[in-house]
Amino acid sequence: MDLSIFMGKIYNFQLPKRIVFGTGSSSMVGLEAKALGGNRILLITDENLRSSGLIKNVEKNLLSEGLSIDIFSDIRAEPSLEDAERVAEKTRGGGYDLIVGIGGGSVLDMAKVASIASTNRKPMRQYIGVNLVVKPGLPKILMPTTAGTGSEVTHVAVITLLDEEAKSAIISPYLFSDESIVDPKLTYSMPPRVTASTGLDALSHAFEALMAVSANPITDTLALQSIEIIFKYLSRAYRSGDEESRFGMSLGALMAGMAFINSWVCLGHALAYSFSVTYRVPHGLSCGLSLPYAFKFNAPAIRHKLPQIAEKIDASYRENVKSPDDLERFIFNKIMELLDELNAPKRLREIGVSESDLGKIASKVLTFKRLIEKNSRALSEDDAHRLVMDMW
Length: 392
Ligand SMILES: [Fe+2]
Hints:
With 392 residues, the chain is an alpha/beta fold. The chain is 47% helix and 11% strand. β7 and β8 (166-171) form a beta hairpin.
């Protein structure tokens, strides 16, 4: 790693207070909840998980420590502002002292909302933005049941604004968990399509962390390692979902989350957000579709990182790569091959976008200023149009 490129800047690095990782670690939740001072717990999950053995085990574990539990499971995927308000209402009336979130990214994001809603009592819309949450919330434990969103280690709650056909977020250090318990066992029952989608989200987090202007030696190390793990295990987790590939994907997604929350995501997520709500494409699949094009656009700005990325994808890459252009093509093609293996969409036309919609999508990309500003290469209006056309 050439450190000279990182000199002359000041970097931040922040994470949840504690991360517990390992197969079987979810059985620690009762003890951990007690250690955080929990007595009356609001357990947040979704309808599908609610009746599963997985939630029953966690419930049993919490009850065995003498804790009382209320369950809230009315959470939809890609939650809207209205969903966030319902979670807030539930929390405010309950007298809870600890939040436990178990589920995918949407559930974990709503557990963060529950935590701050108890102490910040204005309508949730007023907290959308950066650092607008006034007070710390209830302590919270986050336990992911997918491997990809990284929500367990971020201080972001993504909220869909249905009337604006867009996504926004509450971003505040008060959203960081007090403890994240990452147990690969909780991902064993994930269906193949969710495995593919969330895994592609994780891969996008890792690549975009490398492509963002705030990338630093710590985030690059985490991102590169997670690229290696994800390329090794994602297809296998999708096909067979064996224990080793689940372990790999939980770890890869965790590391990608730790990288991007400190470096940030950029062009790939801006592209994904520009069409995912209108065309109802799950977050991870929209990120996966956008990733190769975002990479191709940014490659000139991260030339020095391309050999490291290629090496992580395939240690014998030098046999196929003779020039810098080859290197860029090699990485682009490897991402495309992975999308093929996962039966994921690679073009906007595959998800129902017609050519006449492209102008609207390109204009929308530029509205995600916070993400575009983080991109290592400036994006003009013409660039956005060319990119979207290329994606089509
Ligand atoms: Fe994401």
